[in-house]
Design brief:
- The chain has 164 residues and is mainly α.
- It has one domain.
- 77% of the residues lie in helices and 0% in strands.
- The chain contains eight helices and no strands.
- Helix 1 packs antiparallel against helix 7.
- The longest helix has 29 residues.
- The protein is globular.
- This is Prepilin type IV endopeptidase peptidase domain-containing protein.
- Keywords: Membrane, Transmembrane, Transmembrane helix.
Length: 164
């Protein structure tokens, strides 16, 4: 069951990546599907209590991040552009999907890394829009694949504590 669940989760992440890169929009059903599969996948690694605590912490971080982005848009564009003209709803929904897959420090590292990769891709290809959800889905796909290949846990933050 665990392998089948992982395969379906990886497949949904692949479709999100493909659709966002190709069409710059993702079918809405993929986000709840990936979220539900991520919950099931994460419960196999940590207790429900720890998962709820990590997801709640990550959700607070997402709210803070989007409040800062909202304030930036208001100040930078003097009200001419709203938040949803800068970032798509799918991008926000993917942040929610990703929040279920990590402990808080690993989520911060994932967010910084995937946003940095998005910046590099946007500078290289100079499109009007950036497939942020697709890039993050690709990063999560790679991390989950590595997790199952090398049997490490995305809820284990020990590697970060070694660097601090």
């Amino acid at each position: 069951m665990s392998y089948l669940l992982t395969i379906v989760l990886l497949l949904s992440l692949s479709v999100i990546t493909y659709q966002d890169f190709k069409e710059r929009q993702v079918h809405w059903i993929l986000f709840p599907l990936a979220f539900f599969l991520s919950i099931l996948n994460s419960i196999q690694q940590v207790s429900a209590d720890k998962l709820l605590l990590n997801t709640g912490s990550n959700a607070i971080l997402i709210v803070i991040l989007f409040l800062i982005l909202f304030l930036y848009a208001k100040i930078r564009f003097k009200g001419r552009k709203g938040l949803w003209q800068l970032i798509g709803l799918g991008d926000l929904l993917f942040f929610v999907v990703a929040s279920v897959n990590f402990a808080i420090l690993n989520f911060i590292a994932f967010s910084i890394g995937s946003l940095f990769l998005s910046l590099i891709i946007s500078l290289l290809y100079r499109h009007k829009t950036i497939p942020l959800a697709g890039i993050q889905a690709c990063c999560l796909f790679l991390l989950l694949s590595l997790q199952y290949s090398f049997e490490f846990n995305l809820f284990n933050e020990y590697w970060i504590y070694q660097w601090i």
